[in-house]
Amino acid sequence: MATNTSGQAKLAIRNAGKRYGAVVALEGCALEVEANTIVSIVGPSGCGKTTLLWSMSGLHALSEGEILLDGTPIVKPRPEIGLVFQEANLLPWRNLLGNILFPFEVKGQKPDRAWIDHLLERVNLKGFEKAFPNELSGGMQQRASIVRALSLRPSVLLMDEPFGALDAFTREEMNQLVEEIWLETQTTIVFITHSIEEALFLSDKVVVLTPRPGRVLNVYDVPFARPRTMEVMAGKDAFDLHHRIKADIYGQQRSGGGAAAEASGAAAAE
Ligand SMILES: Nc1ncnc2c1ncn2[C@@H]1O[C@H](COP(=O)(O)OP(=O)(O)OP(=O)(O)O)[C@@H](O)[C@H]1O
Ligand SMILES: [Mg+2]
After folding, report:
1. Is residue 43 part of a domain?
2. To test the ligand 1 pocket, which listed residue (49, 53, 160, 192) has its Cβ within 8 A of the most ligand atoms?
3. Tens of pLDDT, residues 118-137
């Protein structure tokens, strides 16, 4: 399950650097994402998480380094890569189904209606196909945007704080939904979040980035079997992992990144 048939990582980030003028957002960032896994990326605000995700999506170019999908450099958006953002970004003048079908119309591609129906059922949106975005709750809009992304059957789903704007209860429901979808599709998912809890519930690995310029400070394996129960998530192992990740993030913020840089060197040397 760890790698695809050729043994290479699904996504390989190599020495990724990104500058916006004088601002160095990423520098020497290296990471491999194995096929059929969920990897969460956490780190202080402004450390380059979104920058990294956009680079993975092919929406913008790196200043240095490269990101490979199945061994091929990503230089532009690829159909195998789906995206979900914090905002659902539904078109307000199209109903829910119209929004899901929109990418197919743009691509001149025939939608798989049975698959779309199945996804709508799976996320509990059956019966709302004709509703317009302003008639849907935030959670429903975000579920629609997940269906829109998955309807194209991506092999990689990139999610940038997809549930950051939702209340805690809805967010937990959405986390369970992502877990269910993953158990069914095994889509490789890269998930950015500010919530360590969310990262631990969802991920096979949690990647902690340093403050800007972002690079990988530590990667934690999350060994819990799925589906993940409340008991496991409230247990000592989850608590310890949570604490270590939190210490990484807050320790760096307090030390202004110095400890982060040292730890990063140590992690790289492992
Ligand atoms: N288009 C841009 N032009 C100039 N600077 C940018 C641009 N996008 C991001 N930056 C800068 O790059 C750095 C990293 O930004 P990025 O959005 O990747 O951080 P982030 O980790 O996603 O933060 P947050 O957790 O707050 O979402 C920040 O200093 C930001 O100001
Ligand atoms: Mg961001």
Report:
1. yes
2. 49
3. 999 999 999 999 999 999 99
